[in-house]
């Protein structure tokens, strides 16, 4: 059972901590943000059981799909030798995002966008929140006038339509709703509290199919450019 103290208890700091822990616990179960928002204020036993039963069925369906994919991978590894990792390859990118209020940013990323806490320094100058394999580096060292220079990034996601609907319900600042673009991408755009811009989407057309958008013909887009061959 999830218990979150009310503000009437006179322990606002404990309330924030308790809510944060509850959110982290539910997100660790990969529960949708919309369901978490229903659970946090407190629900009756029937509604709570229904929410968890629905989420369990969702996870079981995903597990079955994962098992099928693992069988495909197992078959593939039997037929094709695994390629050794390139030691010069970049393994991970951590964006450095300046913020004027680290607590406000952490609350937005966790409670609205569904990130989980990664780490935080004891002096509250730096913190990181994570989603999947992405860590968002939050930096409080902005001392200039007004908001820090806006950063932007394109984030690839599995289902931009479902995610946009989920974020909208959670109260995210959506500035461009999900749509198919002339570039061949389907995506949407949101802002964080400091005005940093993130576009989330996926490709739905091949680059050659939208070559005219870039002022080229399909034949001008090289599938295997010569510099790749020369480098190898």
Structure, briefly:
With 232 residues, the chain is of the alpha/beta class. Helices cover 38% and strands 20% of the residues.
Q: Would you give an account of this structure?
A:
- With 232 residues, this protein is of the alpha/beta class.
- The protein folds into two domains: 7-79, no CATH class; 96-218, 2,3-Dihydroxybiphenyl 1,2-Dioxygenase, domain 1.
- Helix content is 38%, strand content 20%.
- It has six helices and eight strands.
- It has helices spanning 12-28, 33-39, 45-79, 102-112, 160-170, 226-231; strands at 96-98, 116-120, 126-131, 134-139, 152-156, 173-180, 185-191, 197-203.
- The protein has a four-stranded mixed β-sheet with strand order 1-4-3-2. Strands 5-8-7-6 form a four-stranded mixed β-sheet.
- The longest helix is centred in the N-terminal third of the chain and has 35 residues, at 45-79.
- The radius of gyration is 22 Å and the shape is globular.
Tell me the structural class.
alpha/beta
Apparent shape: globular
Q: Let me know the largest β-sheet.
A: 4 strands, mixed
Succession of helices and strands: HHHEHEEEEHEEEH
What are the salient characteristics of this protein?
232 residues; alpha/beta; 2,3-Dihydroxybiphenyl 1,2-Dioxygenase, domain 1; 2 domains; 4-stranded mixed beta sheet; globular
């Amino acid at each position: 059972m999830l218990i979150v103290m009310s503000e009437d208890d006179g322990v606002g700091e404990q309330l924030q901590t308790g809510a944060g822990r509850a959110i982290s616990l539910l997100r660790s179960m990969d529960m949708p943000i919309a369901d978490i928002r229903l659970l946090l204020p407190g629900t009756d036993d029937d509604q709570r059981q229904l929410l968890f039963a629905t989420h369990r069925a969702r996870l079981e369906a995903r597990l079955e799909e994962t098992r099928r994919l693992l069988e495909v991978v197992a078959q593939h590894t039997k037929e094709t030798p695994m390629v050794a990792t390139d030691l010069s390859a970049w393994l991970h990118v951590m964006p450095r995002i300046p913020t004027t209020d680290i607590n406000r940013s952490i609350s937005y990323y966790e409670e609205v966008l569904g990130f989980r806490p990664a780490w935080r320094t004891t002096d509250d100058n730096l913190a990181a929140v994570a989603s999947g394999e992405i860590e968002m580096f939050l930096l409080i060292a902005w001392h200039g006038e007004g908001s820090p220079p806006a950063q932007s990034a394109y984030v690839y996601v599995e289902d931009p339509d479902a995610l946009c609907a989920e974020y909208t319900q959670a109260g995210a600042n959506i500035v461009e709703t999900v749509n198919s673009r002339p570039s061949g991408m389907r995506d949407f755009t949101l802002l964080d509290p400091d005005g940093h811009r993130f576009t989330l989407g996926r490709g739905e057309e091949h680059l050659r199919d939208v070559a005219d958008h870039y002022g080229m013909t399909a034949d001008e887009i090289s599938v295997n450019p010569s510099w790749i061959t020369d480098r190898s």
